[in-house]
Specification:
Layout lengths: L1 H35 L2 H27 L14 H29 L6 H23 L5 H30 L4 H28 L9 H9 L6 E9 L5 E8 L5 H14 L7 E5 L1
Parallel strand pairs: 2-3
Antiparallel strand pairs: 1-2
Helix pairs in contact: 1-2, 1-4, 2-3, 2-5, 3-5, 3-6, 4-5, 5-6
């Protein structure tokens, strides 16, 4: 438990740093996006604003996860982490849709773009996002951190695209690179956001965690050699790392010792801790 608290304290400080840096540069990009006329820069600024909010949400989730369990919240507040990851992932899917719509409008009706400002701010953005991404790689990994890192990676990809587009416009007059680049980067962001959202949704719906199988647990129970009839198996998780299982059996002999042996067998053959394994005799 002490190790968990230390991990969350470390992540909390890292989230404070990256949220501050991201929020600051988001304002810079939006302002200079309007000045230069670059949709990619404005889009990245808006996306970085949402990232700052997402990072703040991740920070809140990290703080909440350290709160102790109570009589009303018997699992504590660790479920807040997949909730934050779900919201973050959903924003990664929704925001790029609006950017794509605006990009299509720009293709139909092009506007003048000032590439020099676009290039300077895009380069600074590349550096800032690189720093933020590096800081987050030092955090102890969980779904909450992964969703935040994916937001930053999306910003990094967009910053690279802004620089490439700015160079293309500056030296070759390829103004179409701005909206086309916006569409391509948005598609990449949507794909990553969908993956995080799907994983977080599975946790919130108490679906079977990735890497675990009801059939596999069933085989382990049957191989325990106990005189039981297997009724049902449930596997779920509170967050990405805390896995639980509940096994319901019928025993003709009704030996309580059989339940302990089944728990020990599951614990030895899986990564599920003994204290998270429940065997019920009906």
């Amino acid at each position: 438990m002490t190790e968990d608290i230390s991990m969350y304290q470390k992540n909390k400080m890292l989230f404070i740093w990256v949220a501050s840096l991201t929020l600051f540069f988001a304002a810079v990009e939006i302002i200079y996006g309007f000045i230069s006329g670059s949709l990619m820069m404005m889009g990245d600024g808006v996306h970085m604003s949402s990232d700052a909010i997402s990072l703040i949400l991740s920070l809140i989730a990290t703080i909440m996860a350290t709160k102790a369990a109570t009589k009303n919240k018997t699992f504590g507040y660790k479920r807040f982490e997949p909730i934050a990851a779900f919201i973050n992932g959903l924003s990664l899917v929704m925001i790029p849709v609006f950017i794509i719509a605006e990009a299509i409008s720009r293709i139909i009706s092009p506007i003048e773009i000032i590439p020099n400002q676009m290039l300077v701010v895009g380069t600074i953005g590349l550096v800032i996002n690189g720093i933020v991404g590096y800081i987050l790689t030092k955090a102890s990994s969980n779904l909450n951190v992964k969703s935040a890192l994916l937001h930053v990676l999306a910003d990094l990809i967009t910053s690279v695209s802004v620089v490439i587009a700015a160079l293309g416009i500056k030296y070759f007059g390829f103004t179409w690179l701005d909206p086309i680049g916006s569409i391509l980067t948005s598609i990449i962001i949507i794909a990553g956001g969908y993956k995080i959202t799907k994983e977080a949704f599975n946790i919130l719906m108490e679906g079977t965690p990735k890497g675990y199988s009801v059939d596999e647990i069933g085989k382990i129970v049957k191989s325990s050699g106990q005189p039981i009839h297997l009724n049902t198996i449930k596997i779920w998780c509170i967050n990405e790392s805390e896995i639980y299982t509940l096994v319901d059996v019928t025993s003709p002999s009704r030996e309580e010792n059989a339940l302990a042996k089944i728990r020990e067998k599951i614990a030895s053959d899986t990564d599920i801790p003994l204290e998270n394994i429940y065997v019920n005799m009906s």
